[in-house]
Amino acid sequence: MNATTSSVTRKAAREPVIFEISKPGREAPTQFPPLARGPDAGAPALPAHLRRQARPAMPSVSELQAVRHFTRLSQLNFSIDTHFYPLGSCTMKYNPKACNSLAMLPEFLNRHPLAPASASQGFLACMFELQEMLREITGMHGVSLTPMAGAQGEFAGVAMIRAYHRARGDEGRNEIIVPEAAHGTNPATAAMCGCVVREIPCDSNGDVDIEALRAAAGPKTAGIMLTNPSTLGVFERKIVTVEKIVHAAGGLLYYDGANLNAILGKVRPGDMGFDVIHMNLHKTFSTPHGGGGPGSGAVGVGERLLPYLPIPVVGRDGERYRWLDERDRPKSIGRLSAFMGNAGVNMRAYIYMRMLGRDGMVRVAEFAALNANYMMRRLTAEGFDAAYGMRRASHEFIITLKRQHRQYNISAMDVAKRLLDYGMHAPTTYFPLLVPECLLIEPTETEAKEDLDRFCDAMSEILREMAETPEMVSKAPHTMPVRRLDDVRAAKLLDLVWKPAAARAGE
Ligand SMILES: *Cc1c(COP(=O)(O)O)cnc(C)c1O
Q: How far apart are the first and last CA of the chain?
């Protein structure tokens, strides 16, 4: 037994997790003594008819038990602060704590979203500069920070494309071309905006099939939605040809820039000819995210779409900053969120970019690509198959376990679950749908070489287990508080609320 497996077995011996520790009569202080002074001293806070007649049913535990219970529960999760987290297409990188603490300064945190511009000059200056930095990074003409997620940024983008065609009386353009390597949100967005999705294939190298694109583009084309680098982890080499074909057909180009880390300071979507882009500030520019939020899906546009940008955006008159709204932008597609978007996430992105500076941005791209390519080389050397041969990866890459599946009947899901036993979050599984038995691996730029090596060592160990002790892999995880869950049931019937025993008995 080597060092890795013995530590895995040791971990299995840890205390079982008990969720129900309630005992009748045991309790923690839940009320402070009444105020002894002042005009309200001793007076009930609520009129009698609004007050409870009986105490609510609560778990009966001591304060210490409650603290331990929740602290332990919080430690059952994988997080970037505790584990390597190579979840492809999600950019689970380290988010510097300084971004968090500066964004939480009371001057930012306590600012009322309806405070007048005259009382918000500092905040508005930060947001203006953030717009400018994103404009420069993407090569676009204008930026709006209002969308609250990548998917909402996409919605804004396609809504602008539609508004542009309508304004020109070009009502018949209702088709959005989506390469099959696209993120699932792309076709969903197009459908949400009332467009017809025209899917086109990719060639065996992972690039857009140019002949299929030529055949699809025409007078009904509203635009194309492209993720570049694509979810196959490769940079679209025929991007200039794609741009020519779509623009020549009268369509516009949408860039899914959810994961910009591979291209920061290297290439700009605006220079590639794109008309609109959304960026996931929470992925690329440092906000801890997951489980659905929080996010910011800032959008950038070229000259043609500038009038349609969602409002409000921050403008500058001389030395003063102010919100530009429907009076300044009468053709805007309108508001996407209450107020000005997700202020906290935007603030973190601003601080992150100021901390890294221009040179830091370039280094982000270089390390994101270096780490992904290093791991791809190591894993292929260990005997895994890269889905797109040795084609250079961007910030992520795909391993396909098709061969191992055939040989050992071990699936990508089995390997993902076994990685948990080795103390690492699993990569993205079964996405993109094009590649059978795939793991989409995104190490991100913030990981040290030792951690990349640890992952590759674990993968190589798992490969050995497949041949020698296949049950170790097919029955994994062995050390987690729960084994394999019914993912669909867990998502649909999520049960997070403690119920008193009586209510549970009646279920
Ligand atoms: C994450 C992601 C999205 C969606 O972003 P959300 O903020 O989750 O809505 C869209 N496209 C790509 C390529 C992504 O990775």
A: 47
